[in-house]
Design a protein that fits this description.
By secondary structure, this protein is mainly alpha-helical. It has helices at 8-24, 37-40, 49-64, 81-94, 96-99, 120-123, 131-140, 158-169. Helix 4 (81-94) packs across helix 8 and helix 7 (131-140) crosses helix 8 (158-169). It is globular and about 45 Å long. The termini are far apart.
């Protein structure tokens, strides 16, 4: 599988890019809420294997784009109150336990997972993260990246996934 064949030098390059972006607080890897020890933990020399695995999907997206099946997909749903409400119901059923109520990766099961769940609240605010990326992550899950994120494409319909995405993009309203 091509995902598992990432070279060490390529991985180091993307980790260096991520560390630079975090330090500068710009770019798709920036996490402006990180400071001090938290920011230092994302430098390549300080990353845990879980952090490296967590960044693989992003690295592939930035360097190669989306898998063919997700390249041109866009949500068919408006961010209507009904779609967001339905998405919230599904999010609470399927995603909340790991990603937490506000998408901060702090759900009840989060501490037992390596890599830790994605911080969806930040991810969905990033303009570089397109609809197809979110559909790919939810549909295919994290098996290819050695993560516990389940693949939902067999369990949820595309419409249900799009509504979850609408809910997340709306900022996880109560």
């Amino acid at each position: 599988m091509w995902i598992r064949n990432l070279t060490i030098s390529s991985a180091i390059a993307v980790l260096a890019f991520a560390a630079t972006a975090i330090a500068a607080e710009t770019g798709p890897w920036a996490q402006p809420n990180l400071s001090g020890d938290d920011a230092q933990s994302w430098l390549p020399e300080n990353m845990t294997p879980g952090q490296e695995r967590r960044m693989q999907r992003h690295w592939i997206f930035i360097n190669f784009g989306l898998p063919r099946a997700y390249r041109s997909v866009k949500s068919p749903f408006l961010a209507s109150e009904e779609n967001i409400r339905e998405g919230g119901r599904s999010y609470r059923t399927f995603c909340h336990v790991c990603h937490g109520a506000q998408g901060r990766g702090d759900g009840d099961a989060a501490r037992s997972l390596a890599p830790s769940p994605a911080v969806l609240a930040e991810l969905t605010r990033d303009p570089a993260v397109v609809d197809g990326y979110l559909m790919w992550a939810i549909s295919d899950g994290g098996v290819a990246f050695d993560s516990d994120m389940p693949a939902y494409k067999e369990l949820l319909s595309e419409d249900e996934i799009w509504r979850i995405i609408a809910y997340m993009q709306a900022g996880f309203p109560d």
